[in-house]
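cache lookup: miss for this entity combination. No prior model stored, computing from scratch. Input as submitted by user K.M.:
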Amino acid sequence: MAEPPRRTLPFPRWLLAGALALGALALGAGVALWTGKLERPQTRYPGLGGDFTLQSDSGPVSLADFRGKAVLLYFGYTFCPDVCPTTLATIAEALRKLPEDLRRRVQVIMVSVDPERDTPRHLAEYVHYFDPHFIGVTGTPQQIQRVLKQYRAIAVKVPNEKDPENYAVDHSAQTYVIGPDGAVAGLIPYGAAPARYVEVLTGLLPD
Amino acid sequence: MRALPFVALLSVLLLCSWGPPADARASEVGIEDAYVRAVPPGQRVTAAFFVAVNHGNTPHAIVAAESDAAEHTELHEHVHDQGVMRMREVERVEIPAAGRVAFQPGGYHIMLIGLKRALKPGDRIHLTLVLEDGTRIDLEPEVRPIEPHDAARDGHHGMKH
């Protein structure tokens, strides 16, 4: 019996092998490029945060002054009777739980969302009640608005018709964790316990 | 008279359901674990917290508060709305029949505005809560240090369960 005719390949084997190798290479390069792009940004929160300079009782304070340290940034106001004191007391408690060498590498900054009533002097008295190392800063309403925008935070004055001087300010209540490189490294929501702050700061600051 | 036991029973039932006078009802609402927050120096506002317990079968409401420690006293609530804390005055806080309502950090509080003196831990102030039916509950809450979150969330010192 005659052998059935051999099926001919559409193109030589070496060419097929070469095409396959090229394809694999391209796919690999594509994947590498794609994952590389995902890992490349400096922060997990692209476009969030950034430097600012505001006024404290002892002069101007810039976020850039604290490169190499972790910064806990909180937006609040001293007229706030409940949420702000609780959060600041929680952060103060967390810092007391940190080992001394770590604690010295953390700076807490409260940015006032109520520049009309919060003078640098009053802010200093207020934050030092919780921890003498805390810094309170304020500025013109425009400067504050710019920082709020950088951090996509909200602060809205709520007029009080009965008693115009005693208005409240609705405000974002999370704490921004800023890494030693100045980029936002995390957000801690309102209501978190001191242990959560300790965990985040310990993970952020290498020994 | 076969109806006599029935009439007697009805009378007993009527007597039992006879509502107590308004002043006696005051005891239906109990206030537990009332305290006021200490304030940083120069601070003009603070908050008072407690747990209101309704031991009765009728709902009640807290509609006002008065204090010797502040110029104004308001009922406030916090609403946590997508990361934003909104503090609002409320006209009344319902205490459901046989229910309890906690005035606690992040929720309801009595806001003391225009403090007349510095409040230090261990001090006491006068605080009167006014119920919807006119009942006044006089309290002498102690001033306590500001508590961090984990302690605040799990209930306060000496809270009765």
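stored under new cache key. The interface with chain A takes residues 37, 40-47, 72, 76, 78, 80, 83-88, 105-106, 109, 111-114, 146-150, 152-153 of chain B (CB under 8 Å).
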